[in-house]
Amino acid sequence: MLQIGETIQDKAIGMEIVKYFFLCYVCAAKDKRRIIRELIADTKNPTQ
Questions:
Q1: Nearest 5°: phi and psi at 47?
Q2: What superkingdom heads the lineage (predicted)?
Q3: Contact 8, 2 (CB under 8 A)
């Protein structure tokens, strides 16, 4: 629903911002899992 004084364009810009925040969150979560996996692999097979 549009709020009073809000245009369709304002609503579209808001949705784009939400989409980018969501994508950043998903990418960060995947990155954290990858980093954790790499850290675990390094502790099991230390290469020093």
A1: -115, 85
A2: Bacteria
A3: yes
Structure token pair of residue 24? 């950043």
Residues 11 and 19 sit within 8 Å (Cβ to Cβ): no
40: pLDDT strictly greater than 60 = yes
**Residues 10-38 as b or e (16 or more Cβ within 10 Å = b):** eeeeeeeeeeeeeeeeeeeeeeeeeeeee
Which is it for the CA torsion 7, 12, 18, 21, positive or negative? negative
More confident site: 48 or 37: 37
- Which residue reads 């810009």 in tokens? 13
Q: If pLDDT is split at 50, 70 and 90, which confidence band does 12 have?
A: confident
